[in-house]
Design goal:
single chain, alpha/beta, 252 residues, 2 domains, 7 strands, 9 helices, 15% strand, Rossmann fold, seven-stranded parallel sheet
Length: 252
């Protein structure tokens, strides 16, 4: 039977806020981490900073189906099996639904939902063959409760939750667990740029903070431990679950 520290742990969006914090957690747990990110230079730099040996940086556009398959297959051929997949890569903008366009729909869905389909489809056969795997996808509490100005994003992340439950049922017998972490509002460069686009960045962030019972936004270091736990051997009897990490904003 494989173990959590065997094989590789691939983290998409691994050079960003939540992704980078997750990579640090996994590396500290003894995993060999592949930092996969749209920005290849940042991915390599992030991998070089991790504790331990054998970490890799990889340029990866999760929305590009053939490239994802090609690069993950090449990774396995050269460096060994992927036993852990963490899907963090995501993107959004605050836009009222009536002002969105089909092109915007495609971009949000391709990154936030199709990206997860692409990576899971590429690594799952190897996990099934090995009889071991951990898949954790980052969705959003927007998917659980709805979020004004994020209708397409919320829908795509809702699809990630439903998809993950379905795959969890299919592969439980193969020793593969599939779970989802839903962050609440998290202080990352992405959300700050989204707030700035509204022209009222600081006021928007203050309003978000007031809405959270713990009275602060999450940090990436608040989210990463939940992801790392679900990827660990301690979570071996947990699958098909969705965990909110939101400071009490979502109580469902």
């Amino acid at each position: 039977m494989a173990h959590e520290t065997d094989g590789l742990a691939v983290v998409t969006g691994g050079a960003g806020g939540i992704g980078a914090a997750t990579c640090e957690r996994l590396a500290s747990a003894g995993m060999r981490v592949v930092v996969a990110d749209l920005d290849g230079a940042r991915a390599e730099a992030a991998a070089a900073r991790l504790v331990g040996a054998g970490h890799l940086g990889m340029q990866l556009d999760v929305a590009d189906t053939p490239v994802v398959k090609e690069r993950l297959d090449a990774l396995v051929a050269e460096h060994g099996q992927v036993h852990t997949l963490i899907n963090v890569a995501g993107w959004d903008r605050f836009v009222p639904f009536v002002d969105t366009t089909p092109e915007f729909w495609d971009q949000v869905i391709d990154i936030n939902y199709r990206g997860t389909l692409n990576t899971v489809h590429a690594v799952l056969p190897g996990m099934i063959e090995a009889g071991y795997g951990r898949i954790v996808s980052v969705a959003s509490d927007a998917a659980r409760v709805g979020s004004s100005l994020e209708s397409i994003y919320a829908g795509a992340k809702g699809a990630v939750i439903s998809f993950s439950k379905s795959v969890a049922r299919e592969v439980a017998k193969n020793g593969v667990t599939v779970n989802v972490v839903c962050p609440g509002p998290t202080d990352t460069p992405l959300i700050r740029s989204m707030a700035d686009d509204l022209g009222s960045g600081e006021r928007f962030m203050e309003a978000l903070t007031r809405a959270i019972p713990l009275r602060r936004l999450a940090t990436p270091d608040d989210i990463a431990p939940a992801i790392a736990f679900l990827a660990s051997e301690e979570a071996r009897f947990i699958t098909g679950q969705t965990l909110s990490v939101s400071g009490g904003l979502t109580m469902a």
